[in-house]
Amino acid sequence: MAGRTVVITIDGSNHSQRAFDWYVKHLMRVGSDVVYLIHVAEQVSLPVISADSPLSFPTDTWVEIMTARVKRIADLQNHYESKLEELKLRSSGKGGFITQDATGSFPGPQICEFIQGKKADVVVMGNRGLGKLRRTFLGSVSDYVLHNSGVAVMIVPPTAE
Length: 161
Description:
Layout: E1 4-9, H1 14-26, E2 33-41, H2 59-86, E3 96-101, H3 108-117, E4 122-126, H4 132-138, H5 141-148, E5 152-156
Parallel strand pairs: 1-2, 1-4, 2-3, 4-5
Helix pairs in contact: 3-5
């Protein structure tokens, strides 16, 4: 079988973990799949005024926020990189966990650009299970990717509770 390029979107939620697990159980081809896990790191909101000293910049708070963000991303990367290694889904120089800083408030276009750049054959992503009304107002990344990526998209729904 010819190899295929698989992109799995990762955001640190149970939904993206469920999508990864679904790929492993139902789609994974060890030895032929090149798997990219894409994480678009949200922009952080930094305070402009210090609560302790209103006339100075809150640099200590900025450092705390950015340090926590870097740690969250590193923990996420370590978690998924170890899974890729364990499942033998790491090819020499191909695939792996990729983090990109968000270029906007909605990650859909950025994910589609990544998918197209990697010439993905299939995308696997989780779904939060928003209703029609909430999805209309909040937007849905999975809905956007489904309609704009130009490749097969597997959306893994939430489990019934």
